[in-house]
Amino acid sequence: MSRLFRMFSSFRYSDYRWLWLIVAFSNAGVWSFTLTVTMQVYNITHSSFWSGALIFASMAPSIVGAPIVGVLADKLERRVLMLAAVVLSLIVLGVLYSMTITHVLSPMGMIIMSLMFGLASSTISVSVNALVPTLVPRDGLYNAYSLQAVGQRGTEFVGPILAAPLYAAFGPQSVYLFCAGIYLLTLVLIFRLKVPRVQVVDKEAFFQALARGFHYIRSSRSLSAMIVLVGLHCALTMAFLGMLPVFVQKDLGLSTHSSFYGMLMSMVGLGAIIGTLVLAAITSHKVRTVLFWVSAVVSGLSLAWLGSSSTPVSSIVAILVVGSSQAVFMTITIAIVQESTVEAVRGRVTGVYLVLASGLMSLANWLYGALGVSISPRFIMLTTGLLFTIIVAAYWYVFARKDVPAVPDATTPAADLT
């Protein structure tokens, strides 16, 4: 019972429970949206270039938008930012629904809508990640981010599982309505959330505040190294979604109209649930450090395994391991970043983290989608997975054996703002 209590200890805080539900519902909408637009554009164009382009468009706002949202998250009430983002998501879903049923939808129109949807998703992500440390004690951050990952990554399983049959039976317009219902419920949950107001100590101009955030990251060798590694991880191991339709159709010989594509995407989420639930129960600093390095290595090797899979069964097992290892790695790293950051710049640091995470992943998705037209997705997955494994080995040699700890102990005080 004590182990079970430790696993869900952050749920003792009522506002964290509301935030967790917001994460779960909004992310279910994101993954249902992602599955639908990639399937829809691929069935219209029969080209992985466009499916990769849509993934890029939905994540690209993080490149420019996340740092801007990060500054706003340090100066404004973060709940207001989330409300605005949900409203924007509802507008996008309404437009896509209307364009679909009137048969005026085009690939370029879908890219524009995906850009707007991505801006909304980026705003929610920055706000949520910056809010967690204000709702739970510092020694509970790893548990809180692990449970958040269960909700976030777990809906990668639930969203596609629900959306794929809707798409197959009633078309993409039915999934857009389903997503709209999810975001309306999210809107209600945000109104129930009570968050501390941000205390703005200085009256810096916008660009001065933005520059201070970058300076804070540069001044910490361990923090900057961690954020760079996250960017490499996302670009090399997590940017395979744009290639997934052509992988299913050409390498596995299955139709993207079948429910298998949605099931394959959902297995990423199921693996993430397993991995992050295990992580939530771990309180040992030593074990978390080992898991950091192991999950990084397995993340690369499991993507290579997925690329070499030739049957539906082997691809499902491989993608389960992909989802589990990636979720554990990303959960540990976001907790490290937040634990190492003071509240005054938390939004800006989170924004930069998302630039390298979502931003590089979006660029890589587009690149791999374009390459997937002439190069087998198998080769791309195998190559990028093994490359990241080599990078992790180099990181371990440089940092783990030197003066930069992979996972700071919870008792270590956060760096001061300089």
UniProtKB/TrEMBL annotation:
Keywords: Cell membrane, Membrane, Transmembrane, Transmembrane helix, Transport. The chain crosses the membrane at residues 20-42, 48-73, 80-99, 175-193, 223-248, 260-282, 289-307, 313-337, 349-367, 379-398. Pfam families: MFS_3. Residues 1-403 form the Major facilitator superfamily (MFS) profile domain. The keyword Cell cycle does not apply. One of its GO terms (cellular component) is plasma membrane. It comes from the Bacteria. PANTHER family: INTEGRAL MEMBRANE EFFLUX PROTEIN-RELATED (PTHR23513), MAJOR FACILITATOR SUPERFAMILY ASSOCIATED DOMAIN-CONTAINING PROTEIN (PTHR23513:SF6). This is MFS transporter. It comes from Alicyclobacillus mengziensis.
